[in-house]
Design goal:
This protein has 195 residues and is an alpha+beta fold. It folds into 2 domains: 30 residues; 155 residues. It contains 2 helices and 10 strands; from the N terminus they run H-E-E-E-E-E-E-E-E-E-E-H. The longest helix has 29 residues. It is globular.
Length: 195
């Protein structure tokens, strides 16, 4: 009986290793930049960081995590061709301890083997439950400066959140960091909703 259980676990382990190998090969062919994000080796194929989103209505701590996606814009931006998609999540601290979870989608332009010199575009969307009500969002555009991702909204129109929050004239410098670092910053934040 022990041999059967050990054989089952060994088979499961082989399946997991095979799936990971297929994922790495697929990423290497379609999104090689995912191995080198923000000037760093990223073997887990994702990047996470946080910063303070400065807007016309206040400053809000923001955390993002993103990884490759097959969905992206096919249109050029700033004369650069799209080279891949981004997906992930964002978390916006709207007041001390109060978090707004966001869906992140976007496109990388001009970056193939790494994100160096690439332009990134994010759309951060308010999560809408049951498809009811308006869906707030804001866009950010930017480039890497060393390990930091410097972004702004290019003064483009954004949609107001259900809470009344509207992100306008936004800019941020995202630096590598963990969600726990972000939450600690949110707990002491002076951010507040300004409808």
């Amino acid at each position: 009986m022990t041999t059967g259980r050990a054989g089952c676990l060994a088979g499961l382990l082989r399946l997991i290793v095979l799936c990971a190998l297929v994922l790495y090969i697929l990423a290497g062919v379609t999104s090689p930049w995912a191995f080198h994000i923000g000037g760093r080796w990223t073997p887990l194929l994702y990047w996470s960081g946080y910063g303070k989103l400065a807007t016309s209505s206040g400053t809000y701590p923001l955390y993002v995590i993103f990884y490759p996606s097959a969905r992206f814009s096919r249109l050029p931006l700033d004369g650069l061709r799209p080279s891949g998609g981004l997906q992930g999540t964002g978390t916006l601290c709207v007041s001390p301890g109060k978090l707004e979870t966001l869906k992140l989608g976007g496109t990388i332009y001009g970056g193939w083997s790494s994100t160096n010199d690439a332009l990134l575009q994010f759309r951060l969307l308010e999560i809408r439950y049951f498809g009811i009500g308006q869906q707030g969002y804001f866009d950010l555009y930017g480039r890497w400066h060393g390990s930091e991702l410097v972004m702004d909204d290019r003064n483009r129109a954004n949609a107001k959140f259900r809470s009344g929050l509207e992100i306008k004239q936004a800019s941020i410098t995202l630096e590598p960091g963990s969600y726990s670092d972000f939450k600690a910053g949110c707990a002491t934040s002076t951010a507040a909703i300004h409808p």
